[in-house]
């Protein structure tokens, strides 16, 4: 396992940076009752990546990143508009947006001989491929998003920051882990009245560390292991934590 440290410490650092932005956003998502917005926006960002790649741009190049960000921002603004116009059916609209983006991505990948590989990367991510040289830029972007998240409370601002955070993370950790990092800690700590954010950070950070360690030992994919770890720990926390009843 020691020989794997050059691979796993950048992956852990990337996971902690994703956690830094997704914990406060996840708490707000849960409070707003739009749980599946992260799946929809992540899938739309992924569609942007696939579209850029389909048009012939380098898969990890700047142009593809701009496609992903543009798609995510457009999707976020559209969902912000639908929330204002039809709030009573917003969750259904989010589900439709997710299904539409997912199937559009499948159609674009249908003629690609590596289509199934690209789709798998989009879903489970490539966190083990994160390089140490990528971390400073990721840290700077995450710090900016976190700072704005704590200061910017407007609804449209929330959607735009959400789109930026998801675009930044979806290609690193995949759609499934984006969802788990956003929702599981927020749900597991929902009954807490004090130090909830700190508990979310602790739960997510420990889950990334354990999941990556299990991946090193078992040689199983890191992303799914982290998803399973954070879910199991989240369920255990939710079931064992009992808020104090006022006397």
Task: Give the percentage of residues in beta strands.
Answer: under 5%
Averaged pLDDT, please? 87
Terminal Cα span: 51 Å
CATH class: Mainly Alpha
Count of DSSP strands: 0
| Overall spatial form | globular
Specify the helix fraction band. Answer: over 70%
Question: Please, what is the CATH homologous superfamily?
Answer: ABC transporter involved in vitamin B12 uptake, BtuC
CATH topology: ABC transporter involved in vitamin B12 uptake, BtuC
Task: Summarize the SSE layout with pairings.
Elements: H1 5-32, H2 37-54, H3 62-85, H4 90-109, H5 115-124, H6 135-151, H7 155-188, H8 196-218, H9 222-240
Structure description:
Helix 2 (37-54) crosses helix 7 (155-188), helix 3 runs antiparallel to helix 4 (90-109) and helix 4 (90-109) runs antiparallel to helix 5 (115-124). The protein has one domain (2-240): ABC transporter involved in vitamin B12 uptake, BtuC, CATH 1.10.3470.10. The model has no long low-confidence stretch (mean pLDDT 87). It has helices at residues 5-32, 37-54, 62-85, 90-109, 115-124, 135-151, 155-188, 196-218, 222-240. The chain has nine helices and no strands. The radius of gyration is 18 Å and the shape is globular.
Please describe the structure with a list of short key phrases separated by commas or semicolons.
9 helices; ABC transporter involved in vitamin B12 uptake, BtuC; 78% helix; 247 residues; single chain; globular
């Amino acid at each position: 396992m020691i020989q794997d440290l050059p691979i796993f410490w950048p992956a852990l650092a990337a996971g902690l940076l994703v956690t830094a932005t997704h914990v406060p956003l996840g708490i707000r998502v849960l409070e707003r009752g739009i749980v599946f917005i992260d799946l929809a926006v992540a899938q739309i960002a992924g569609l942007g990546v696939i579209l850029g790649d389909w048009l012939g741009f380098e898969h990890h190049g700047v142009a593809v990143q701009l496609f992903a960000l543009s798609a995510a921002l457009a999707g976020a603004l559209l969902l912000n508009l639908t929330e204002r116009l039809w709030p009573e059916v917003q969750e259904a609209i989010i589900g439709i947006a997710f299904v539409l983006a997912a199937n559009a991505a499948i159609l674009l990948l249908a003629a690609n001989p590596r289509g199934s590989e690209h789709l798998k990367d989009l879903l489970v991510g490539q966190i083990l491929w994160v390089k140490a040289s990528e971390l400073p830029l990721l840290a700077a972007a995450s710090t900016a998003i976190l700072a704005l998240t704590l200061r910017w409370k407007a609804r449209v601002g929330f959607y735009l920051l959400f789109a930026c955070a998801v675009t930044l993370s979806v290609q690193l950790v995949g759609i499934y882990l984006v969802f788990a990092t956003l929702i599981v800690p927020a749900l597991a700590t929902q009954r807490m009245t004090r130090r909830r954010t700190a508990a979310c950070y602790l739960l997510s950070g420990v889950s990334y560390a354990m999941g990556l360690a299990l991946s090193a030992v078992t040689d199983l994919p890191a992303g799914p292991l982290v998803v399973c770890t954070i879910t199991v720990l989240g369920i255990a926390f939710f079931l064992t934590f009992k808020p104090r009843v006022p006397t």
